[in-house]
Amino acid sequence: MGLGLGAGSLLALSACAAEETDVATGGPPRTGGTLVYFEPQTFTTLFPPQAGFYPNGGIVNNITDRLLYQDAETLELHPWIAVELPEVNDDATRFTFRIRRDVTYSDGSPLTAANVVKNLDLYGLGDKSRQLPPSEQISNYERGEVLDEETVRFHFSAPAPGFVQAVSTMNAGLLSDASLDLDSTGYGPGQSGRIAASGPFVIDAEEIGTRLTLRVREDYDWAPPHFEHQGRAYLDGIDYVVNNEYSVRIGALVSGQADGVREIESPDEPRLRERGVQLHAAGTNGVNNGLNLRFRHELLQDLRVRRAIIAAIDRESIMRKLFTENYPLATGVLAESAAGYKDFGDAWPHDPDRSERLLDEAGWTREGGSGIRSKDGERLSLRVNTAIPQPRSREVMSLVQQDLLRVGVDLQINEGDYATQNLDAEYLDRIQLYHSMVGRADYDVLKSQYSGENRDVLLNLDEETQEYGDPELEELLGRIAAEPTEDRREAASWAAQDHLVENAYVLPFFEEPQVFGFRERVRGFRTEAVARPQFYDTWLAE
Amino acid sequence: MKNLRLSPTAVIAALIALVAVLAAVFPGLFTGFDPNDGGETPALLSPSATHWFGTDQIGRDVFARVVYGASHSLLAALVAVGVGLVVGTVLGLVAGTRPGPLDDALMRVVDVLLSIPALLLSLTIVILLGFGTINAAIAVGVTSIALFARLARSQSVSIGKSDYVAAAYGSGGTYWNVLRRHILPNAVSPVLSLAVLQIGSAILQISTLGFLGYGTPPPTPEWGLIISEGRDYVATAWWVTVLPGAVIMAVVMATHKIGSTLREATA
What we know:
The complex is a heterodimer of chains A (542) and B (267).
Chain A: H1 10-24, E1 34-39, H2 54-63, E2 68-70, E3 77-79, E4 87-88, E5 94-98, H3 113-125, E6 141-148, E7 151-156, H4 163-166, H5 177-180, E8 201-207, E9 211-216, E10 237-242, H6 246-255, E11 260-262, H7 269-274, E12 278-283, E13 286-293, H8 303-312, H9 315-322, H10 352-361, E14 365-366, E15 373-375, E16 378-379, E17 381-384, H11 393-406, E18 410-413, H12 418-424, E19 433-439, H13 445-450, E20 461-462, E21 467-468, H14 471-482, H15 486-502, E22 506-510, E23 513-518, E24 522-523, E25 526-527, E26 533-534, E27 539-540
Parallel strand pairs in A: 1-10, 1-11, 17-18
Antiparallel strand pairs in A: 2-3, 4-5, 5-7, 6-7, 8-9, 9-10, 11-23, 12-23, 13-19, 13-22, 14-15, 15-16, 20-21, 24-27, 25-26
Chain B: H1 8-25, H2 62-97, H3 101-115, H4 118-129, H5 133-160, H6 163-170, H7 175-211, H8 223-230, H9 239-266
């Protein structure tokens, strides 16, 4: 709900507020109470640049503040720890921020200009000796500089227009000096008590792999200034309980043991709604959930084979069978609400006849009774990962397996837990089709997902030779992060998307939301721009 | 062997086992649906006249999957019992007829095997061998070697002390001849009834491995895998897990009943 700021809109504002009080929340926010929140997976690290993983982000987002605040709906940036939007030079290589001086970390140390520089130096450059990678969202970072007690400047070796948005994400959550000196183990499970940040909640206790407790920061008084709600958060604390058995999490929600659960699966949505559970579907504003075809693998080098695989898959049938309307069918490489979205609505029709024709042309024929195509004695057999953090990945892949079998392509679904899947995904000979997505509300999201410097989900970069299978793709991605103006970044992003689609490197399935379920007494739940929970405004009704 | 006196439950058990074996050999007799391709059928339909066990999370007919899964589960169970039976019996016979260091050594190995929980042992072996139906079956088989070895040893020890074995040695029989002609045939019937009893628990163990993701890779309809894939929807779509679970239970109990009937008959 957008609140007008001018005096003329005061009437509208009060009407708005009244409506919110009576209907949506049922009274003024009540302070107190602990929210019990069930998570499918335990966090792996609290190092902010690695907070992209849902369980990490769900915590980091609530314990850290950022220089800027990004509105989840409008994607507009607002001041937060920085008192105003930064001054940026013309070619986007110098960013000057003025910061608040009344902020303290939970370990008592003040948030100073020098500390902000120390944060961004670590996030921008990483530290190999401590196994801390740089943030995938910050490109071309050179150094930070303290101009005076309340002014800092960041220098870049090449244009880095994405930096302004990057400092608003939880991947740039600010930490105290002492916390920044930890190594990667220090950010890991079992060590969470050592993390001191300035956010509305503080880590209180941890049982490794089972539970993490946050407690409210009573003296918190630096919420983004445009928020109506200032001061401490309403909740006294949050209990993150990890339980990897889905039916147990749903049972906990229905029975009232849990107040909230992340990741409600589609088949349960109607039943939960009947039981009075509030469902909250939040878009992740990034690269859509989809299949990436690793074109460097010998079986996928032929464009015809890649096109055939894409034509064989019936996206609409998959969506109809497995998902509700909270999961919109992808109309592009990016989600419609993401920065740089381009409509490719008709690019992926289901056409099994065309698929068979393409495979025949490419020399893959059905011999013998097996039904699987082969060429020169080699079977057309591929392996796909199971994207454990993504909704119903296994079911989606089972349907893809069915569709591909019909045209004579064998698909194996990789078994194993999260760690196994991550490890296997790094090898071209183990995983040739890679199911994934990534959320980030900036043009750079494409680069984050596909660049050899970042996630490289297509494995474009050959680790051994350090050469790119498709150097043009890498160059196009680099341009998105380097163009200084909004228009040119959009054009660069479109060019990269065209390249991905024309070369049949990707098949997007749907715009991935995070679907949360909350008991009726939970009010004021919000998410940030890529659907990580933000409990600052959340409160519990009587 | 005494005359078999068949109780009604034994008859029912035999019928269930017969149906299971028929389903394993001729799955097409029982269902016209494709177990691996649901076509356009909606997911998670509740049981009906068309889909007896409903449809699963991606629209496949659950009954068809259970029927086609029978061959995987039963074949794997037979392999598992076969491994345990052959290896265990040979070890047991040799140990029982060669008192001394060899007996001691073999029986200590068996003790060690018995001290490791069966599930842990089979998991360890399947991880070493790699995932798959036959590997899971071998892993389960290894865990039952100790049981067979113990039984075969105790049988051969008692038979070895009998007069006819002494007579056979006395009339010039070699060790292997006596073992094959006199000891093995007399020791084998309790071992065989143990084997029938073991089929049930092998099905259960193989389903457990399948449930945990170490057995047959998807989309093959192995029974444990069917249950595992449906378990997230147990509250909304109970049929995907409960009905295949009931089938496993029925088959396991049937083989158990048959095994214990045989054992009583041969005791």
